[in-house]
Amino acid sequence: MKKISQIIQFYLIYFFARYLLKYYQHIHHFFIPFLKEKNNPKVFCIGYVKTGTTSLYKALSILGYRSNQLLRGGIKPKEGWIEYIKKLKYDAYSDYPMFEDDLFKQIDKTFPNSKFILTVRDIKSWEKSFENFYIYSSEKAKNEGLQKINEHNENVLDYFKDKPNQLLVMNIINGDGWDKLCKFLNKPIPIKPFPHKNKGRYKKIKKSAN
Question: Which superfamily does 2-209 belong to?
Answer without folding.
Answer: P-loop containing nucleotide triphosphate hydrolases (3.40.50.300)
